[in-house]
Design goal:
Two copies of one chain form a homodimer.
Chain A lengths: L5 E6 L3 H12 L3 E7 L10 H5 L23 E4 L5 H13 L3 E4 L7 H4 L1 H14 L2 E4 L10 H7 L4 E12 L5 H6 L6 H9 L8 H11 L5 E2 L3 E6 L16 E11 L6 E10 L6 E9 L2 E6 L4 H15 L6 E2 L2
Parallel strand pairs in A: 1-2, 1-3, 3-4, 4-5, 5-13, 6-10
Antiparallel strand pairs in A: 6-11, 7-9, 8-9, 9-10, 11-12
Chain lengths: ~325, ~325
């Protein structure tokens, strides 16, 4: 690790971006040197007052990369796109500026399988620029893909894998409750689902990654998205959700053996308001069998911010190119 | 991955070595081309009949490396030493023959911290020979060290870590029951403990590895070893252990903060005959807190063999040198 602090630029000041910026400001080995967000309500604001973080006073949020002051930076944290093809031009511009990139783009986990041509081009440019482009995150990025893949390395045989994640959104940020449809009607849920405006991004990508790392063949099917509907009222006062309204989302995706047609891997994700006893669970049917459970679940927001900060530190000394 | 099978030599035909040899013989992408064991009861025997594995008939176990037929091999699996300094001359000889090495030597996990000079020399020789020297195993190697270290990467802050592993040896190989003192007197236990003839090798090494990867400072203390004694008879018939006799071992080791003196990491390992409800558990007090549990525990023997086979496959394309 180098002795001077790594100098960081952040792109995207949504809820995760704001937490990341604050944590960077507080970490003795990191230094925030710029922040970009094009949203009219954010661009131009003083970052210190926007984040209630005194140490950042005097730093203005700029609307785009070109408006950044010409201070040297080492790493850009990209938190401005969930979809890989939206992220590509951002990543390209950051590589062009000679910055390592850490991205929370959900679709990066399986990008090399889904968009091999774009990935090869990014990889080539990153190598040439001598920078690493790394994905960070916990889902996708750890609980439902990387961790079961790592566990499979201690198995002699893997017959099937099942990963289940239950998240209680009542304890999470309001943006996540909105994103999972808390309180809307099922008709509205269907409308938003058609426009990809509700639910989690990246579950099928997690399974694509996992199948690329398991000693198993499996064709990854389409993702299924259903609303979780309140059978009785949930919550109190302003935060009460009536019976019949949506509490959240239930995503699922499977992989089937091309030879036997049997299901060899299943990912199940429920994110709902008031979901009882959140947990994450990984079951590997194999030799040996493995049954792992995170009691209480892995807190998505804090763990994502944690993953971003760890990945920022990994850029120091990382091999150039598009990494995992 | 290469298209022709990797050719493997195994060194050491104890219980794990025998399982590894059998699994290599059965794996379509691996080929066993030699076996070494100096034990008078094993050297010279036909490997096929020794392992009841027809496909290995005609292959003789040789007493030392020099007696191996001059067939080309790619990887040597070293399962002949728990202590690093005993392993060094073996590793040296294998590197000298241009073989990648996968070793189950328990002390390899923290060897670079305990024996930096020897490790630098091995690393130099391995790089020069263009071979990778990799450690494999599940404890040390995964459950109590690598996995909690990997989990800490999704934490913004780690205040303390506690790992607990409970193994029921009644379901494991008799050699492990003997190694953990099942059935002996407490006086005999103390004698054997003084001669390092009882218990698990490598718990302190796991903690040294873990502390090298956590964002925490901690001085690793000495390992404590106590017998677990039967309060009432356990088991039936020939396998009955009377009250007052030893059921197994309880190892523990801690790391304390050099500034506050507080315990920042604890590893607790119980391996005992008839220990109820085996499990592995990792608790990280931090942001976010993480509480992971393997229900039923991770089967040490099968998972170690699984880890060896995965690590053999990793040698193909691995960076030369002494790796992790």
């Amino acid at each position: 690790m180098s002795t001077r602090p790594l100098r960081i630029v952040v792109l995207g000041l949504g809820p995760i971006g704001r937490s990341v910026a604050k944590e960077i400001a507080r970490a003795p080995d990191l230094r925030l040197v710029g922040a970009v967000d094009p949203a009219p309500a954010i661009a131009g604001r003083d970052l210190g007052s926007f984040l209630s973080e005194g140490s950042l006073e005097g730093m203005k949020v700029v609307p785009d990369l070109d408006a950044l002051p010409r201070r040297r930076a080492d790493v850009a944290v990209h938190m401005a796109a969930s979809r890989f093809l939206q992220a590509v031009p951002h990543l390209d511009a950051l590589i062009g500026r000679g910055l390592h990139v850490v991205s929370t783009c959900e679709e990066m986990i399986a990008a090399s399988a889904r968009w091999p041509r774009e990935c090869r081009a990014l990889d080539r440019r990153a190598r040439k620029a001598g920078v690493a482009v790394l994905a960070a995150g916990v889902n996708p990025g750890f609980v439902m893909d990387l961790l079961p893949a790592a566990m499979s390395n201690i198995c002699l045989e893997v017959r099937s894998v099942r990963v289940t994640r239950h998240v209680d959104t009542s304890k999470r940020r309001p943006a996540l409750q909105a994103k999972t449809g808390a309180g809307i009607t099922t008709a509205e849920f269907r409308r938003r689902a058609k426009r990809n405006e509700v639910g989690h991004v990246g579950l099928r990508d997690s399974l694509l990654f996992l199948m690329g790392h398991l000693p198993l063949e499996g064709d990854v099917g389409e993702e299924r998205l259903r609303p979780i509907v309140a059978k009785r009222p949930v919550g109190k006062g302003k935060r009460r959700i009536e019976a019949g309204r949506v509490l959240g989302v239930h995503h699922s995706v499977k992989a089937e053996s091309p030879s036997t047609g049997k299901v060899v891997a299943t990912l199940e994700l429920k994110m709902a308001y008031g979901l009882a006893e959140p947990f994450d669970e990984i079951r590997i049917a194999g030799d040996p069998p493995l049954h792992l459970r995170f009691e209480g679940g892995v807190s998505g927001d804090r763990a994502t911010v944690g993953s971003v900060l760890s990945t920022i530190r990994f850029t120091d000394g990382a091999a150039p190119g598009l990494g995992g």
